[in-house]
Specification:
Largest sheet: 4 strands, mixed
CATH superfamily: Glutaredoxin
Shape: globular
Number of helices: 3
Strand order of the largest sheet: 2-1-3-4
CATH class: Alpha Beta
Number of strands: 4
């Protein structure tokens, strides 16, 4: 995982989503980028019609609410798993 984008116009749920993602990212030593996207055209370009949404490395991972810390943690766990043994 190199890039996380939080899509949303700035509503309380969007802000909460950003906070949860940042907290879990910090706890996991995430060295990539976290970006907040508020531009409606950019949000729509991801096919997202309901915010907040989370995009990880260009793919929509979550839409329409605030993810739990456990959900966000699972993204970090699954991204660190190696399938090339």
């Amino acid at each position: 995982m190199k890039e996380i984008k939080i899509l949303g116009m700035g509503c309380p749920k969007c802000k909460a989503t950003l906070q949860v993602v940042e907290e879990v990212a910090k706890a996991n030593g995430f060295s990539g980028t976290i970006e907040k996207i508020e531009d409606i055209a950019t949000i729509i370009s991801y096919g997202v019609m309901l915010t907040p949404a989370v995009v990880i490395d260009g793919k929509v991972a979550f839409v329409g609410g605030v993810p739990s810390k456990e959900q966000v943690q699972s993204w970090f766990i699954s991204s660190s798993a190696c399938c090339c043994k």
